[in-house]
Amino acid sequence: MEENNKKQFIVTDDILASHRERFLNLLMDYVGQIFLYIIAFVIAGTIAQANGNKDFMANFVKNDIAQYTFATCVTLFYYNVFEIFTARTIGKFITQTIVVDENGEKPNHERILVRSLCRLIPFEMLSFLGMPARGWHDSISKTYVVNKDLLAERKKQFYALK
Questions:
Q1: Does the predicted TM-score (pTM) go above 0.90?
Q2: Which of 7, 4, 1, 9 is CA-nearest to residue 105?
Q3: Radius of gyration, CA atoms only, the chain
Q4: Where are the alpha helices (H) located in the chain, listed in sequence order?
């Protein structure tokens, strides 16, 4: 009896988000990142102009490394802020999915940071071609994207049996 009380819920493949949901998450999050990129670029340009750097915009457009660095920072900011505070991004809110650890709980900050950094791995998107729909940023960070309502239902059933 005491051993049963120590058992924890474990995420299973049947509650994982589908390939379709993951793809929709990607598209919606990409739109969110573009929007954030534009806002950040306008703010940076305005600050540069106010400080007398009239050529900031023209120089930025010509500098591929600056653009890549800026886009990378925006991407890391987007995913870290959303997932650290809510375990969800804009795409996940739309598809009713959520990021969790192996026990169906909100991942800690370190896991979210690792998850976000792993998104920068070249060809990381190709890691979704297999089954189940888990990419490298999921497996390396030991996180899962699951259906939020199904997770709540399964956890309720699991803990009701205890």
A1: no
A2: 9
A3: 19
A4: 2-5, 19-50, 56-62, 64-86, 90-95, 109-118, 136-139, 148-160
Amino acid at 129: L
The upper half-sphere exposure of residue 130, i.e. CA atoms within 13 Å in the direction of its Cβ, equals: 7
Q: Residues 4-27: pLDDT tens digits? A: 567 899 999 999 999 999 999 999
| 128-141 pLDDT, tens digit each | 877 777 889 999 99
CA distance 46 to 36: 15
Residue in the structure block whose two tokens are 């939020």: 148
What the block records as the tokens of 161 is: 């049996």
Q: Are 87 and 80 in contact (CB under 8 A)?
A: no
- Among 115, 23, 133, CA closest to 78: 115
Please tell me the distance from the alpha carbon of residue 130 to that of residue 119, in angstroms, as a whole number. 17
Residues 6+ apart with CB under 8 A from 78: 29, 32, 33, 36, 89
